[in-house]
Fold this sequence. Notes:
By secondary structure, this protein is α+β, with helices and mostly antiparallel strands. It folds into two domains: 1-76, CATH 2.40.50.140; 89-259, de novo design (two linked rop proteins), CATH 1.20.1440. It has helices spanning 43-47, 84-100, 108-123, 128-142, 191-202, 215-233, 238-252; strands spanning 2-14, 18-25, 30-35, 54-62, 65-75, 162-166, 171-174, 186-190. Strands 3-2-1-4-5 form a five-stranded antiparallel beta sheet. Strands 7-6-8 form a three-stranded antiparallel beta sheet. 35% of the residues are buried. The mean pLDDT is 90. Bound molecules: zinc ion (ZN). Zinc ion binds at residues 152, 154-155, 157, 173-174, 176-177.
Amino acid sequence: MIISEGIVIRERPVGEQDKFIDILTKENGVVEASVRGARKTAGKSGSATQLFAYSRFCFDLRGDRLTYNSAEPIHIFYGLRSSLSKISLASYFAEVIGDCIHPEAQSADVLRLFLNCLHYLENGRRSETMLKAIFELRLMSEIGFMPDIIMCRGCGAFEPEELFFCIDGGGFYCSDCFEDEEADGWMKVEKPVLQAVRHIVLTDFDRTFNFRISDDTMSELSELTERYMLCRLERSYKTLDFYKSVAVREDNNGSKKIQ
Ligand SMILES: [Zn+2]
């Protein structure tokens, strides 16, 4: 029997009572498991296999495949369900992880990133925009798409006041070295955005969530991280489109600031 901590990132009903779940585990990447009788099981073992349940799973090894045996919940993230915006953002994170992290991948750092994002999303101590930016950029770095953010590619300037970030190439030029302001695939950003990008990518994980920037800078950062991630993964996500529609609607109601 193999025991691994993990979080459920997807569930699909099968027949009347069973379901398949995808679990982001610490050591085995994303594992698909069949849970028999899941939909009539109440109590601890039922909650341990629902979406966004972080649990200690027991798997059996059959051939080279892990199959679900049992689970004990560690944290269920019930607080996410209080807000359509929060649950939508969490669903977007989960879809991206399901897309990027494969079986047998070493996934402890991605699991930690996801758990921390959900933790701050649940307790509301960080803005949704900030969590989205951190998730997108840090995830890209964890899976081998770290942007090149050390210096201007033309002259080596370390910290120009404004710069042009190349979405495709993942690097930047200062405004003296950049030639074509009309070209696609570039974003003009100010120095604080570069500093935030560097913080997210380069800082120790324990300090990743600790930085403060203005709302305008956060919006620019969020646009940059989203465009960079979608470009690297070469696809779009319906859950992202839905999250954005929900976040905007809540803003228009005046009940919640746009994230
Ligand atoms: Zn330069």
